[in-house]
TrEMBL record:
It comes from the Bacteria. This is VOC family protein. InterPro entries: Glyas_Bleomycin-R_OHBP_Dase (IPR029068), Glyas_Fos-R_dOase_dom (IPR004360), VOC_core (IPR037523). It comes from Streptomyces chengmaiensis. Residues 3-108 form the VOC domain.
Length: 118
């Protein structure tokens, strides 16, 4: 029924953030015209959490080894804006996009769903 998910990051400097995702993170992409790059994402999963606040959505890039990922990104002069912390359910860190926004990185300690068959 569904064949994928389309994630949108709203940012104050879309051109710089697109270049960062293309050049620093190395994500494959297609050109949709007029400088619009659409990036191929790794496999994904969806979680639904309760909140007492206004509903919101978050994006985390998952990795098998957060420390190794951060070391590789440092080789490309990527700024770590949030050092790794163990939250029990996983390790969480963040890198800074050129626009100033943070992009969270996540090494789960729980079973992941993204490799399951439909």
């Amino acid at each position: 029924m569904f064949n994928g998910a389309h994630v949108i990051l709203y940012t104050h400097d879309a051109e710089a953030d697109r270049a960062f995702i293309r050049d620093k993170l190395g994500f494959a992409h297609v050109e949709a015209g007029h400088g619009w790059l659409i990036f191929k994402l790794p496999p994904a999963e969806l979680a639904v959490h309760p909140t007492g606040d206004a509903p919101q959505h978050e994006l985390f890039l998952m990795c098998d080894d957060l420390e190794h990922t951060l070391a590789r990104l440092a080789e490309h002069d990527v700024e770590v804006s949030q050092s790794p912390t163990d939250r029990g359910w996983g390790l969480l860190a963040a890198v800074r996009l050129p626009s100033g926004a943070e992009l969270p990185l996540y090494e789960p300690h729980h079973p992941v769903a993204h490799g399951l068959s439909p």
